[in-house]
Amino acid sequence: DSIMATDARLTLQLGPGVQARQAYKSSPECANLGVMEPDEQGEVSFIVGHIEREKTYEFLCEVVAPPREVGSLDVIFARLHYRVPGEADELVEQEVCLSVDYVTAQQAESTQVDVELERDFREVTIVRLTEDLNAAERRGDHTQAMHVLHDLVDHCEKNDNTGLQRRFETLMRTLDTQGRLSQETLNACLVASTTVKSDTAEPLYEVHL
User: Fold this and answer.
1) Which pairs count as long-range contacts for 192-196, CB under 8 Å and 24+ apart, including other chains?
2) Is the pTM of this model over 0.85?
């Protein structure tokens, strides 16, 4: 059976003073989950559903940590609840605490960028921009749609996504000559932007800031 867990739900408890921003799903497919809206307990929940073997389930969450002196701060406490088939329907829970370090300006200069995380954010940004393109065309705002297409081409180039880059460049020429984009074309672009390679990975889930 390819299903290793069911009824999975990811819950994030934000730390003191931490502000929620945008949330994305970056694997096994890309999706824009919108702005996170914590409840009265400061929690945000995502329904994961079934978890399949040999797939990575990854969520990217943008948060703003409060200003403070040099030190460490727990920004998110993440809990994953799920049921294991064949285990008497037992509810299992995994927990992880995510912290950030506040450093001096000199120390920040030597901080290395997480290349994989940076790539993931570029990919989910393409999804968000493609949704913005759809929205602009539905409004009939073709000028804004062209601006979004320029941003999409730039993001695809930075992400070395030649296939999508060429697709969006073709849309730019179509919009320039015909003055509009068909809904069928827009839907196809949205589907293409949400498709990413799935990798075999050991962790059951990851939560990135």
Assistant:
1) 192/163, 192/164, 192/167, 193/30, 193/126, 193/127, 193/130, 193/164, 194/29, 194/30, 194/31, 194/127, 195/29, 195/30, 196/26, 196/27, 196/28, 196/29, 196/30, 196/123
2) no
